[in-house]
Amino acid sequence: MSKETTLDIAAVDAYLKEYLNGYEGPLEATKFAVGQSNPTFELRTPNRSYVLRRKPPGVLLKSAHAVDREFRVQQALADSNVPVPKMHLLCEDDGVIGSVFYVMEHLKGRIFLEPTLRSESNDVRTGVMDEMNRVLAELHMVDIDAAGLSDYGPMGNYFERQISRWTKQYRASETSAIADMDALISELERSIPADDGQRTLVHGDYRIDNLMFASEGTGCIGVLDWELSTIGHPYADLAAVIMQWQMQPGTEGRGLAGIDRESLGLPSDQAFIAQYCKRRGLPGIQNFGFYLAFNFFRMAAILQGVYKRALDGNASDPKRAQAFGTYVPIFAQCGLAALGKEL
Question: In terms of pTM, does the model score above 0.85?
Answer without folding.
Answer: yes
